């Protein structure tokens, strides 16, 4: 695998280069367990994710992503770094300026921001069991004290908050209804609803997109097939590459 690791804002980043570039790029936004460190990452250590990246490279896509401060929960500093990474890659590689997104889990929160604030640079967005409605996730976490405590700690650290201001900030997190962009999207969701982020997230976003007249499709899969949707993913991306 031809890849290059580098530091940006004290965070590790990586860019995977295909043998036969198509000229299109994909920015991956990972879940809370996502990481890039030194010369490795979750997407090279986890076999399913590694196969998915390999398939994207075989199709000619340039794939890049960042550690993004770990469990960032859509923080402003993670958004700024993702935007900075995009501009750096655009300067260094010969790519179409409109990229695709691939967001897993918590990465969905950051994807929504990029789609809204950088809609002219985002060609399409694909989601895998995404967290899209933080209000919904927070309410679900409140039913489980252990998970709520961990979420509050991660959120506080990600957003540079104090203990006394954390819960108020979480309650006032940007609502899903705020996002009004027209970026085409597709969601792959676990048919057994075993993901930490219930399929209700996807259904809420589907409802919102429908009300806005937007383009969104949900596709369900069995858990054992989680990272075996590369052909369908590439087909989705290519369907939005007709207009350069």
UniProtKB/TrEMBL annotation:
Residues 47-176 form the AB hydrolase-1 domain. Signal peptide: none annotated. SUPFAM superfamilies: alpha/beta-Hydrolases. It comes from the Bacteria. InterPro entries: AB_hydrolase_1, AB_hydrolase_fold. This is AB hydrolase-1 domain-containing protein.
